[in-house]
Amino acid sequence: MPKMMYRDAVVTTIAEEMARDENVVCLGEDIVGGMGTPGGPEAIGGIWSTSTGLFGKFGADRVIDTPISESAIMGAAAGLALSGKRPIAELMFADFIGVSLDQIWNQLAKFRYMFGGKTKCPAVIRMAYGAGYNAAAQHSQAVHQILTGMPGLKVVMPSTPADVKGLLRTAIRDDDPVIFLEHKALYGMSGEVPDDPEYMIPFGHARLSRAGQDVTIVSTGLLLGFCEAVADRLAAEGIGCDVIDLRTTSPLDEETILDSVEVTGRLIVVDEAPPRCSLAGDICALVAEKAFAALKAPPLAVNPPHTPVPFARELESAYLPSVDKIEAAVRKVLSYR
Amino acid sequence: MQLSREALLRAYRQMKVIREFEERLHVDIQTGEIAGFTHLYCGQEAVAVGVCEHLSVEDKIVSTHRGHGHCLAKGCDVNGMMKEIWGSREGLCKGKGGSMHIADVDKGMLGANGIVGAGAPIAVGAGIACKIDGKGHVAITFSGDGACNQGTTFEAMNMAVVTKAATIFVFENNHYSEHTGFEYAVGTQRDIASRAEAFGMKVWRGDGTDFFSVFETMREVLEYVRVPGNGPAAVEFDTERFFGHFEGDPQRYRGPGELDRIREFRDCLKNFRKSVTDAGVLDHADLDALDAEVLAVIEESVAQAKAADRPTAEDVLTDVYISY
Ligand SMILES: Cc1ncc(C[n+]2csc(CCOP(=O)(O)OP(=O)(O)O)c2C)c(N)n1
Ligand SMILES: [Mg+2]
Model ipTM? Predict the structure, then answer.
């Protein structure tokens, strides 16, 4: 299998799908980069290099560089989707859902249901999320807990380049609106990626990235790698962890989580968003309800604190769940009985 | 030139402080010691200073992601700002905000802002407060040619007109929003002020690389908005940004020789120096002395920032009303 970076898996998959289906169009701020400048179109691709070369291949009608107008970008995606196109809209930073939320939440997400199932709404909203760059409170947030709670949206959080490819293709071909969350700190991650242009990963199917008998660790995105590191550390001591990469937070693969906890009896969920009403809290509740009899320890959520993301290096690293904090959580659930 | 010698020296010094603050950051950022995204204001100093030299602490400003110049011009402490950008707990925002979120509300500086277009509505609220208080104070929002495309800016303009807020929309047109050209992204082409006019505001235009153009234009704008009942106004300044969008931007969208050309002909500090020395109101020695003094001020701020206390894990949980 060829090796590829996470960001390149994004561009490659979009390019393959745009070549396959002429209804696929892209839109977003600076995704061409250089429009209306002396350097000209593509002088600089988007800031994440997740759209490089698309404009040259597919032209201005299908690769639409937009003004700074997130609400109109999301609304345009909704209108395109209702008009037979398959838009892929980019929000440069996930934090900017704030400016555009109505079009995502009250429009895109609700059309199919509100219209009595009479329409499809095949839109992909890609966004770069997450901390780790000291980009402070308005450019570092993990927003999956907000979007996962919205009926009508599917929410995808790939943790590896291969998953980007398989999940993004599924997202583009899906007939419902899909939020595709790309972690900024993973863009440079390299990994093997199937070059099959039909490679797809179905939504709602988690991936077991480490197998063990003692503790179940559930996560996704950047923090999945931290969980794997913890599992590898503990394996040396003879402690076995199941590490489950959710891949999609909606739909949620309950079965894989519950099956694992039936064996281990111990759960920790590692989540990059704040603790209240969080993905981690949600999954802990699920397990408490549906696998109560199997539990040997209370399910434990590992989240950042209930604060905005701070700027300074020391503060941001104290804010984020770390390998050490995750390891401490595992030891805590192991310490019960 | 109606300005006193003292006022001229002060204006020059303010612009020079911003220039050297940013030039120094440009160097220090390359060492990797400063974290985060930093957007430098170099090239636009005449706008911030030409606006803020008219203001008192009672007047409010709301800034942008490119906020250092506005903050310094409004009186934020140089050392406190440098420490903030270096992420110190002694910084103006205790290292929690960083470059994009510098604020000093007591100075009437209601915050830099990481969200493009977020400032204008805030300045409407502040402008309504000024109107209610009836003391002739104003609220000013700075926005770029990119931010002027944001719906929030449109809503703010209309609401300011309807509520007769004492708000001034200052548009700094530096011809780029990130890597995209103004002519591509702004449908009205070469003009933002005409949009504001269409919303029902009185508008002005000026040269943002010329302190005197900005200062005199703002005198008129402020005379108008400070009159209770007149409501908002807008002004567009044509200006230049000397560095990339953010530090690290390779700027391949620029034309050949563009940066040299704007540094040569569109530098507000050079233009200022030429105007005042040609007119014989200040001489080079006066300005050279200020240059040296300002360099020392910036040097000192960096020394302080490097030596300042670092935040600790406990600091994450302060300044929130509740924490989990
Ligand atoms: C809501 C939102 N959208 C996009 C961005 C990313 N961004 C930051 S600055 C910028 C360009 C702003 O251009 P302009 O308003 O002209 O200001 P300038 O950078 O020229 O000072 C963009 C797109 C953002 N920070 N917030
Ligand atoms: Mg601009």
Answer: 0.96
